[in-house]
What we know:
It contains three helices and no strands. The chain has one domain: Pectate Lyase C-like (3 Solenoid), CATH 2.160.20. By secondary structure, it is an all-alpha fold. Mean pLDDT is about 85; it is low at about 40-50. The radius of gyration is 28 Å and the shape is rod-shaped.
Amino acid sequence: MDNQRFNPLSFAQDIWAAMKVLQKQIVALSAAILIASIGTGFWFSTVAPAWAEDYNRELLVGADFSGQVLTDNSFTKANLRESNFSGADLRGVSFFSANLDNANLSGADLRTTTLDTARFSRANLTNALLEGAFAFNAKFDGAIIDGADFTDVEMRQDAHDLLCKTAKGTNPVTGRKTRETLGCD
Length: 185
C-alpha cells in the first residue's frame, strides 16, 4: 500500500475541477433542451389544434374568465356562482346543469352553447349573444337580459314568458332587439 497521505487541498482542487466540467455539461444540456422545447412549442402553437379544457363538476365560485377565449370548453355541473365571463368567447361551451347564479356574462358570446338545466338566477346577460344556444330547462329568475340576442334559442315556454317580462334593448353586435329575438308579443 502507498504511503501517500490525504491532502485536503489537492482533494478540494480535484472536486472543483470536476464540478466545472459538470457545470459546462449541464449548461450545454439545458441549452439543447431549451432549443428543442422552443421548436416543439412553435410547432404546437402553429400546427396543433387547441384542446378544450374540462371544468366539469369544479368549484369555481367567483372565478374570473373575463375576456378569455374558452370555445368548446366544458363546465358541466360546475359551480360558477358569481363568476365573471364578461366579454368571453364561449361559443360551443357546455354549461349543462351549471350554477351561474349572479354570474357576469355581459357581452359574452354564448352562440351554440349548451345551457340545458343551467341556473342563471340574477345573472347579468346584458348584450350577450346566445344565438342557437340550447337552453331547455334553464332557469333565468331575475336575470338581466338588456340587449341580449336570443335568436333561435331553444327554451321552455315558462322561461320564455319570464324573460319577455323584462326583455328590452338592442344587441350592439347583431343590431337585433331582445324582445324580437325572443319572439315576445
